[in-house]
Amino acid sequence: MDSGLDYHTAKALLEWQVELGATEAILDAPVDRFALDPAPAKPAPAAAASAAAPPAPVAEVDPVEEARKLAAAAPDLEALRVALSGFTHCDLRRGARNLVFADGVAGARVMIIGEAPGRDEDREGRPFVGRAGQLLDRMLAAIGLSRAPEQPSDGVYITNVLPWRPPQNRDPTPQEIAMMVPFMRRHVELAAPEIVVLMGNISCQAGLGQRGITRLRGHWTQAYGAPALPMFHPAYLLRKPHAKREAWADLLSLQARLRDGGQDG
Known about the structure:
- The chain is of the alpha/beta class.
- It has helices at about 5-20, 45-50, 65-70, 75-85, 90-95, 120-125, 130-140, 175-190, 200-210, 215, 235-240, 245-260; strands at about 100-105, 110-115, 155-160, 195-200, 220-225, 225-230.
- About 45% of the residues lie in helices and about 10% in strands.
């Protein structure tokens, strides 16, 4: 475009504008910055219909069925521990410090199933390590068993129905127990004990579908496909010392069953 200006005149005008503070080029025509923006363009019909469409419903997940799938896919105890740690449908895991999986001798003749971790267990990541755990160790030692034996044949394997501590040590809900049962069933299958000891009401509820430990204790039954003996939980014995007589009778029954090879006597 011929502006009618020679090179030197145009250059002088440009330098004068720079001296005045002009730092950007502008359009040839003036722009009214105070004018209102034009109305936004209406969306295309297809886009409007898409925006008005309700979101697709999210399929609900059955946590018990999900637990069954994860547990069944675990080929060994370590894989089962990993599967439990990745199970996100139990809210107890959010408030717990550690996953409490098991302790003792995997593959031992006796598998003890407690209820849920307490404060000490949650802190250390092992079952039965507080006062109740110390009492359990003394009870087992009385019949020649230990979680850390000199001979593997004298070992026990210990776990809990719940791997995470409930807030304020409250009882787990039926829903929380139900979603842990598939993991416990697989846990027993992989550990393959001769005898299962169900310690406390929660353990009996998970393994037998029953509560009432004072009625159930001392009577041999079946749980998770193995002979099972319900017993008082050591925490209960700390609160009710008079029940230690019955607990001692149950320990002697367990000892006799082991002496007979785990068979009905």
